[in-house]
């Protein structure tokens, strides 16, 4: 049964950008199909559908093709990685220059100041087209395929059917919102037959509050949650939260959400183990402390600003 909510967004007592949502005590948890509207603007905020992604073959092919990438830890994820936390940094980082933000320079082992700033580590990685600023000793710049796609073309090819399936589901959920993407993407940067240019894979990772500023303006993102069939560490939590509406979507394997993530603040609640005393596989102390070992994958598909057609 479809539930429809019309809610006035809160403007006060909200978490700051880069704050983690550690409790959803005051949130309404959504476990059924749902449409959410902003009563101030009258605009759609999100649509949530249970068990929409059901093509087992394309899911498993995607997971197998991207597993190596999904396990990588990046330190450039900005506000979504949260305020600087020593437990989420690599061990080679010494003293920090700023612990009150989500970016910081640091003292290297030789005592010198780092040339670049870093964020907390995040198991959040990108497939498809990205934009890279020119820099020394790096051959790629401008808008181009991500390095993983270039280095592993067979894996990239194997991941595309799931992305196309997500696009088809998006079109079914809301044709009008899907057409905004499909009509405005630069075909040079289109992933397969989908309406997307780029996909972010979040592996067992709680994102902090943020907005997706680099997405195309007024263009919805599409998120699907799946599980790694080779990982048997099950979880609870990881709800997709919209603090302005005090709504938390319990997105599980096969569920799909479309959302205006550029306009509205969003983040995840913590992931917690179903069986705290039972961890299957070998993981570092940092993995266990930060909950980076569960089988949850959230796949977020969207268009980057740089991948829009030149008329936009």
Structural description of this entry:
The chain has 312 residues and is an alpha+beta fold. The protein folds into 2 domains: 3-82 and 121-307, Double-stranded beta-helix, CATH 3.60.130.30; 85-118, no CATH class. Helices cover 18% and strands 22% of the residues. It has 5 helices and 15 strands. Strands 1-3-4-12-8-15-7-5-6 form a 9-stranded mixed beta sheet. Strand 3 and strand 4 (44-49) form a beta hairpin. Helix 1 (56-70) packs across helix 3. The radius of gyration is 19 Å and the shape is globular. The protein starts with a strand and ends in a 10-residue tail after the last strand. The mean pLDDT is 94.
Write the layout of secondary structure elements.
Elements: E1 3-7, E2 28-30, E3 34-38, E4 44-49, H1 56-70, E5 124-132, E6 142-145, H2 147-151, H3 153-173, H4 175-184, E7 198-203, E8 221-227, E9 235-237, E10 240-242, E11 247-249, E12 256-259, E13 267-268, E14 271-273, H5 285-290, E15 296-302
Parallel strand pairs: 1-3, 2-11
Antiparallel strand pairs: 3-4, 4-12, 5-6, 5-7, 7-15, 8-12, 8-15, 9-14, 10-11, 10-13
Structure characteristics:
15 strands; Double-stranded beta-helix; 2 domains; 312 residues; 18% helix; 9-stranded mixed beta sheet; 4-stranded mixed beta sheet; alpha+beta
